[in-house]
Amino acid sequence: MVAISAVGLTKSYGDKAVLNGIDLTIPAGSVFALLGPNGAGKTTTVQILSTLIPADGGVARVAGHDLVREADGVRKAIGVTGQFSAVDNLLTAEENLLLMADLNHLRRREGRRRAEDLLRRFDLTEAARKPVATFSGGMRRKLDLAMTLVGDPKVIFLDEPTTGLDPRSRRTMWEIIRGLVADHGVTIFLTTQYLEEADQLADRIAVLDGGRIVAEGTAEELKRIVPGGRIRVQFADTVQLGAAAALFDYATADAEALRLDIPGDNSVITVKAVLDALDNASVRAESLTVETPDLDDVFLMLTGSTGVGVR
Q1: SS3 for 207?
Q2: How much is the pTM?
């Protein structure tokens, strides 16, 4: 089952090409993360797929509906949570949810039932009748996402949903997002500048730069694109460090830190070879750490754009 598919999406503003032929295939019941620097076209992609703006070219289907010919069907099947909370500060949490129920044309009893369920699910029951103006940033974001769910969407677009949240609130949002997929089979399209967020949540990640997808895969597949894995070995004194350094070509010794960095692919075979070489030479190591490239390294290697502007 494919929740979102797109072929050749393009979008320009004047003579600036924001999207230059985007292809996407996102399975239902998964989390897909779109990464990219400011100006890469992340938000523009979300706006097109959620029918907020038209594409200049290309075709797309969302939740089984053609983006152009069946735009109303797309809107009924999706929810959108943007970077900034869309809640009404003058209303209570419960009133915000009931307003969304009215906008979704739910019967009054069903609207109240769904509001109560969402308040409970997002741990907002105690704050249900408090004005949203008194809420913390994390509570606002939870309510914002709860409002998105009133319409029971099949696909949710989360455009940088944890921007401005503290680490604890961000992790709470991660747990909520995981639960939406695991318990309800929702498909999540996530844009984020927090690379750890994509690493933690996404089944697949695409890197967008200069209006094009420059890489796509799982987090582990993307990390393997970047060379530079190393085995870091710690020693108790300079004698052991010097003896170990003599065993390995291209190793880098740090005499002050008593550390030896050995380039390698970090496979089990390579690590075992390092340990065997140390053992055969009677060199004693205090500790060994395997370090691999992370998504920061992938992002920096793949994205050449640093400018700001249309996102």
Answers
A1: strand
A2: 0.78
